[in-house]
Amino acid sequence: MTKIGYIVGSLSSTSINRRLAKALERLAASAQVELTEIRIDELPFYSPDFDADYPQVARDFKQAIADVDGVLLVTPEYSRSIPGYLKNALDWASRPWGQNSFTGKPTAVIGTSGGPISAAIAQQHLKSILTHFASPQLGQPEGFIQSTPGLFTEEGEVTDEETAGFLVGYLNAFVELIKRVNGSAASAA
Ligand SMILES: Cc1cc2nc3c(=O)[nH]c(=O)nc-3n(C[C@H](O)[C@H](O)[C@H](O)COP(=O)(O)O)c2cc1C
Fold first, then answer.
1. pLDDT, tens digit, 9 for 90 and up, residues 59-79
2. Helix, strand, or coil here: 64?
3. Most ligand 1 atoms within 8 A of CB, residue of 77, 125, 147 to mutate
């Protein structure tokens, strides 16, 4: 079973991206995937002052990334980029220098918004950061999901069959990438 950790880039209590992540979690079983959340909401603001002695919460965050075969980033777009909340987590992951948690770690990016371009610009920015981190990334399919009211229920049900089919295909493609990069389906844990 492939282990994927997911990070949600929204703090909102009514986040549609969290609903999308829940939907992916539900669909994961059919793609032979174990999907679990890597939380970022308890991380303080990153400062290089912490590099000499990372706080436990940041150590746990980096360990959670190390413990999975790949990381899925599920995020909204804020001001044509990624939310600062997510950028802060990426900064934590990237340090101390020389110990970037994403180097060599397969990643995939997906997100949803009500807008017609579905967080596409945020995803491009995120991919640019992950390229800098030397993370092998899923190129296709791209995860631009235009949200409509009721598309994802709070429990993670997908009410549209075509979207559900797309998401299963998306997960399968990510698993393929992970297997190519990591050499087998064996878990990193
Ligand atoms: C500060 C802020 C900036 C936003 N900027 C954008 C944007 O640039 N592009 C976009 O498509 N949506 C933008 N939105 C709308 C969010 O993408 C939309 O509210 C989405 O539902 C948020 O996802 P969430 O429900 O998972 O938090 C912005 C929302 C906020 C609060």
1. 999 999 999 999 999 999 999
2. helix
3. 77
Task: Give tens-digit pLDDT for 135-187.
Answer: 999 999 999 999 899 999 988 899 999 999 999 999 999 999 999 999 864 45
For ligand 1, the distance from its centroid to the CA atom of residue 113, given in whole angstroms, is 7
Residue with tokens 């800098």: 132
Supply the range of the domain harboring residue 175: 2-187
**pTM score of the predicted model:** 0.95
Higher per-residue confidence, 29 vs 140: 140
Number of domains in the chain: 1
The per-residue DSSP string of 122-155 comes to HHHHHHHHHHHTT--B--SS-EEEE--TTSB-TT
Which value, to the nearest 10 degrees, does the dihedral of the CA atoms of residues 12, 16, 22, 28 take? -140
Please, what's the b/e burial string for 65-89 (b: 16 or more CB within 10 A of its CB; e: otherwise)?
beebbbbbbbbbbbeeebbebbbeb
Residues with CB under 6 Å of ligand 1 are 10, 12, 15-17, 76-80, 113, 115, 119
Residue 63: which CATH number?
3.40.50.360
